[in-house]
Amino acid sequence: MVSLRDVAEAAEVSAATVSHVINGTRYVSPELTARVQRALRDTGYKPNLVARSLRTQHSQTIALITSDITNPFYPGVAQGANSFSEQYGYGLILCDIEEDSAYEEKTAFWLQQKRVDGLLFTSIHMDSPTILALHEDRYPFVLINRKRKGLQTNYVGIDNRDGMAQSVRHLAGLGHRTVGFIAGPSLSTAAHERMDGFFNAAQEHGLEIHPSLVYNGSYRMDDGYGAVLHFLRVRPDITAIVAANDMMAFGAWQCLHRLGIEVPLEVSIAGFDDIPPASMGPVGLTTVRGSQHTMGRLAARLLIDTIEAETYQPPQQIVLPAPLIVRDTTAARRKRERLEKEPEVMARLGALLLQTLQQPIDKEVS
């Protein structure tokens, strides 16, 4: 087995210099650093990471905890976090908790026991006990996309209110006045912010505001499907639908297609997040860009800065702009005479589809 001394001899430096280059514990000139790195490659030296972590109290490892890795929103976050952490010598562990708060707590505890230096969280519940415990212990962590109610913590997200307001403003400018809103889960701070953005902008631009125009979802594709059946049953005059994320927008789009209702000629649709599928097909989804990769990179940088800080650093809140990306699913309001003349027929058709399409329809979470 190649030792540290073997590397030192090959580089013609001291073993201490090799150690400083590997661990970054002291300045070493570029010339000597290059010699050591060349010797490391030539000798095939592999550092004992376990021994080093015991000595330095750092494992050079962070973890990203997601709520559902099958959701197209999260791979972009993971890629951004991984690219930054790798660049600065940290490994990234990816954990999926499947929207389970108890599993979240268990996973965070397990990672701490494995001496992971810090944690990145996406999509926590606003009352998460795990985050409260980590905050009280001053364990390094960064929240992405959602906040923990009542706590000032490290956080990286987007301007949810303004992003949603832009979407409403866009539809109002196209002449829409009866717009349905598919809300996100009640325990998500991001969902609450997007709802606030919708209603504030709707009031500002004179859109109709009524409980019948709101459908409570959970960021799943079938929520969008159910929302359309609800809207057409109680408000057949609806001309546009805004979803709090893209997956629900896709579900709404799919339902309208199966009902023979053209998008955007009869009903316009807008989503939120700009996940990759939103721009992949021949017809693109109008949506708000979530900047997942950027959020991942910034969150990893903030976490590593926190880990490596010699003294306690107050929490930082980074909020990115959320621009509206206009594509093909929104257009000027047009009167849908067929639906307005036959609301009962459409309601019966919606109920029939709900009964006959009970099998899972793309259950991805967003």
Annotated CATH architecture of the largest domain: 3-Layer(aba) Sandwich
Termini distance?
48 Å
Radius of gyration: 25 Å
How many individual domains?
3
pLDDT averaged over residues: 87
Helix content: 40-55%
Task: Kindly identify the CATH topology of the largest domain.
Answer: Rossmann fold
H/I helix tally: 14
Strand content: 5-15%
Can you put this structure into words, describing what you see?
- The protein is of the alpha/beta class.
- The chain has 3 domains: 4-47, 434 Repressor (Amino-terminal Domain), CATH 1.10.260; 58-158 and 291-321, Response regulator (Rossmann fold, 3-Layer(aba) Sandwich); 160-290 and 325-356, Response regulator (Rossmann fold, 3-Layer(aba) Sandwich), CATH 3.40.50.
- It contains 14 helices and 12 strands.
- The chain has a 6-stranded parallel beta sheet, sandwiched between helices. It has a 4-stranded parallel beta sheet with strand order 7-6-8-9, sandwiched between helices.
- α5 (73-87) runs parallel beside α12 (292-308) and α10 (221-234) packs across α11.
- It is elongated, with a radius of gyration of 25 Å.
- The two termini are 48 Å apart.
- Residues 359-366 have low confidence and may be disordered.
